[in-house]
Amino acid sequence: MGSQWLILACIFVPLLGSFLLPVLGRINTNARNLASLLFVLVSLVCAVLALHPAMTGQPLRVWLELPQGLSLGFLGDGMAILAAMAFSLTAAVIIFYSFGYIERFENLNEYYFMVTLFMGAVMGAVFSTNLILTYAFWEITSICCWRLLGFDRSEKSIRLAGKALLVNVCGSLLMLAGFISVYMNMGTFNLLDMQGRGVDNWLMALMLCGILAKAAVLPLHSWLPASSDAPAPVSALIGGAVMVNLGVYIYARLFLAGFQLEPVWTVVTPAIAAVSALISAGAAMRETDIRRIMAYSAVCQTSFILMGVSCGTMIGAAGGLISILMNALACGGLFLCAGTVERSTGVRDINELGGLAKNMPLTALSFGLCALSVMGLPPFGGFFAKYMLIAGAVQSGHIWLALLFAAAALMTVIYLLRVFTRVFFGPLINHEATERSWEMVVSMLILGGLTLLTGLFINVPSDIAVYVAESLGRW
Amino acid sequence: MSASLASLMYAFIGLPLLAVAGLNLAGRRLTRRICRPLGVFVGLAQMAVAVISQLLLLQYHKSSVSFSQFWDMTVSDSAAYLRVDAFSLVALFCIGMAVAAAFSFKWFDSEHNAFNFTNMALLLMLGLNGAALVTDLFSLYVFIEIAGLCSYTLTALYREERGLEGGFKQLILGALASVLILIGLAFIFMECGSLRYDALALFFSEELPLPILDYLAFLFLIGGFGIKAGLVPFHQWLPDVYESAPAPVSILLSGIATQMMGTYALIRIMSELKGGAADPVADAILLLLGLITIFVGALAALAQKDMKRCLAYSSISQIGYIVLGVSCGNAFGFIGAMLHFFTLTLGNTVLFTDAAAVDLATNTTDMERLGGLQKQMPLVGVTNLIAFLSNAGLPPAVGFWSKLLIIIAVWQSGNGFIAGLALVAGVLTVACCLKVQRKVFFGPDVEELSGVSAPRGGVVVSSLTLSGLIVVAGLLIPFLLRMLQAQGLF
Question: Of A282, A284, A361, B187, which sits most exposed with the smallest number of CB within 10 A?
Answer without folding.
Answer: A361
